[in-house]
Amino acid sequence: MRQVIVGIGNAFRGDDGIGRHVARRLLDFVPPDVVVLEENGEAANLMAAWDHADRAILIDAMTTGAAPGTVMRFNATDLPLPREMFPHFSTHTYSVSESIELARTLERLPSRVVVYGIEGKDFETGAGLSPEVERAATNVIDLILREIRR
Amino acid sequence: MKDKKKSQSNGNTRTIKCDYLARVEGEGSFHVKIKDGTVTDAKLVIFEPPRFFEAFLRGRRYTEAPDITSRICGICPIAYQMSSIHGFESAFNVTVHPQIRQLRRLFYCGEYIESHALHIFMLHAPDFLGYEDALQMAKDYGDVVKMALDLKKLGNDIVRLMGGREIHPLSACVGGFYKVPTKKELLPLVERLKWAVEASVKTIRLVATFPFPDLERDYEFVAIREPDAYGLIQGRLVSNKGLDIAISEYEDHFQEIHVKHSTSLHSTIIERGPYFVGPLARFNLNFEQLTPLAKKEAKGVKFVPPNRNPFKGIIARAVELLYYCEEALRVIDQYQPPPAPRVEVTPVATRACGCSEAPRGILYHRYTVDNDGIIRSAKIVPPTSQNQPTIEQDLFEFVQNHVDLPKDKLTWQCEQVIRNYDPCISCSCHFLKLHIDRS
């Protein structure tokens, strides 16, 4: 099975950088046949990132109101990602949930798509993760490593 | 991209509100007053929090201006880099190798391809085809949206290849580039660009079939004219009403005025008024310098200058998409790396004026620098600021001519009038809402 892991976010908007942070740390642990990428979430680039993959695992910050660092797993294979949890921050690009739905419409979605959301606390400009959010990275890494072996 | 619309009716008073204008870069606001069927007032109400770029450039070295100003925009960073770089090079009497000039055009091609593809298909086409957004449009026009995304990706990849990343690329500098590509690095783009030429032809033929509302005004179109190429960087500023000036004379002819209803400055031509920049202006003024294929395709859909319908800007944008795909192929074909990526630059105390055609229109920079090359003052006039008074007048006239339309349709068409200009409101950090008061 061809697998792609994509860490999504903007490293200069605080906790929005968590997706990329997790992806970077995963590089030390994943088998060589698993591709790990970092993206800003732009629809065209995401579709190129998971092109030809059988399974895509995405990691992104979310805002649900849960405690910062809370991790949730979403199966986006059959159902849309809840838009309100992965909101649209940029006026220039679609949100991750919109990008997935666009890919679904265009039949450019892998047969399995899983999204790990990590509740962010602070999305202000500037680099650096909140401690609770950074601590959640280890948990997500474990979950993803188990997922890719299934 | 949320789009909340509300409306109220109170006797012969109608208030239509659109809290969040969709499918533009940034956010903005609009108010119309209609009394007894006549438009009495139309204002583009902009709340612009100052972004302080012109202030915090003071005290920085001229070498930093391209990278600092490029942060003003995520979609057109190269335009900012080119305007500032060429301003300084003109002022410091720096001559770059011809291949550097070619590479800069190639760099700009990447930006045009991704910006125009994004706007034509994802932001503007849904208006003409009656969809709320491109996500909805994709259900019926899947192949067209796929083509748009692939075009955008190609543009992004050109920028990434030359500049290290798509957003705020890092290679352009005063005197040349920090790093230039090898010919071998550029060659993989060729096949994709050939596909893009075909895709652009399809785009022109598709958008020309769209239903275009009637609106024609006697605009003053302003664009850069270069002697040997479709106007893009430096050159002279020309208009269809007799303007023909050097970039350094910009402030003798254009002024920014503060209007009460907006914290954003309005740019006008002194003693004449509003003007129109962007693809339609360039198309009208520089048509003869397009490639033979671009001219042939434009004529094929009966789209030739002069054209004064701002809704048809989408066709001009599509023609430019084709031109810039061909231009990228031309540059790559003739490219040989220059002997050095950049030349030595010695600053002098002077006034530096630079102008280039961002995808949305002319972008003017002016700096004063001292003998150490430290910036003492800066002025940046983005294209969207320059189009604001014209957008306002379009809305006034459009609403007047369609005053009896049902409110939802009128609101939507007003948004479309604004989207004709592909406004990069985030460049001027604006917030757009739509309010129509009928009384």
Structural class by secondary-structure content of chain B: alpha+beta
Q: What do we call the CATH homologous superfamily of chain A?
A: HybD-like
Instruction: Give the largest interface.
Output: A-B, 19 and 23 residues
What share of the residues of chain A does DSSP label as strand, in percent? 15-25%
CATH class of chain A: Alpha Beta
Total helix count of chain B?
Answer: 14
Provide the low-confidence segments of chain A as ranges.
none
Task: Describe what you observe in this structure.
Chain A is of the alpha/beta class and 150 residues long. Chain A has a single domain (3-149), classed as HybD-like (Rossmann fold, 3-Layer(aba) Sandwich). Chain A contains four helices and five strands; from the N terminus they run βαβαββαβα. Chain A is globular. The mean pLDDT of chain A is 91. With 439 residues, chain B is of the alpha+beta class. Chain B has 14 helices and 15 strands. In chain B, the strands form five sheets. A five-stranded mixed beta sheet of chain B has the order 1-2-15-3-4, with helices on one face. A three-stranded antiparallel beta sheet of chain B has the order 7-8-9, with helices on one face. The relative contact order of chain B is 0.23. Chain A binds chain B through residues 40, 42-45, 47-48, 88, 90-92, 94, 98, 101-102, 105-108, and chain B through 1-2, 24-27, 74-75, 134-135, 138-139, 142, 145-146, 149-150, 152-153, 156, 167, 425-426.
